[in-house]
# Entry
Amino acid sequence: MRRITVRDWPRTVLGMALVLACTGCMGVGEGRTTQGPSSSASEPTTAAPPPSMTEEPTEEPTPEPTPGKGPECPAERCFSVLVSGDLLVHPQLWDQAAVDAAETGNGTLDFEPLLAGQRPYIENSDLALCHMETPVAVPEGPFSGYPQFNVPPQILTAAKAVGYQACTTASNHTIDAGTEGLVRTLDTLDGLGLEHTGSYASEADSQNIMVLDTPAAKVAVIEATYGLNGLIAEFPWQVDMLDAPAMIAKAERAREEGADVVIAAIHAGDEYASLPNQQQIDIAHALADSGAVDFIYGHHTHSVLPIEKYNDTWIVYGLGNGVTELSPVYDVNNEGLTVRAQFAQDGEGEWTVNDLAWVPSVIVRDPYRWCSLAPDQPAGSCSTPEHEEAVKARTLATVNTFDADDDGAHPWSVSEETSPED
# Structure
């Protein structure tokens, strides 16, 4: 996977056109030579006859079938995108990472065991997007937790190790460590080869759109946050703020410049809620109504929120937490949702989500781990069977508040699938 910004495509195409137009031309006074004997101005030359005007136009090559990773593809071309909850690192988690590093020998802080349970789901998806909730510090620290985070960058090393290819970075904590922390976070992502969008190190970067390659399609991702916890960014372009018209304009520009599919992420909502607030609904519905966005999902509430199929567009209002410290007060804080959307291309070249699968998760401790509560996981593999059943029942009821199950969203059992590459 490589990063492509749609702003670069027109310039690249224009450059290629100029090169092709000038191929075989000889500049005056440039000392160029031509192959073969030269001819004088007095010697007649025979021009090659023009191609027949009746020749059949060359047909566009038929794209190779690409079934993608996931359930059986109902068309010639499919791909899948996985999204998951916040990477929200508290001191208890970096203490655990130090213990794990002592056992694995992987540096001084090793977060990979914390995230390792996500690997099978990521491996059965073509594209995996994480959400980095906070800025990162230098590897040796000092680190800080709530209310203004500055966390170990090794969490991103682990995200890369388990298979994530890109992360969104706009949140209410994005500028907790100022411009220095924002830039350091983006530099860390760049150094790991993780693409990113939502916050930016320069004004020029803020004008780019993150477009990611899959074997079947180019996928643009846009993201924005409702606020910055009362802080003010040093420059207005540093963090994308929620604004439906601006997001729609960005989505339309992405399509105009080559993106096949556009995904939007919304960082908003009421913490620990079980329903989206009006801002989330209004923004998500506006994006869906625009026709420029194909799939919408959200972060921030630290709780799982419903899934809705609105205007033929899937909206996952809240993914809860991916990793976090356990709350003794809010059970929902310790829970999350991982969602995979499979896109299929119809005969007219249009892409739609044909399958939406979700898996509930819970954070456990002693040791701290992300743990799947998917239907194919043995009872008691994360915590007590009673606790697991309570989490699964709560997640199921919340996810289906807007009748997502009737519209086709379903729990995900990764063991029942075989990747096309297997």
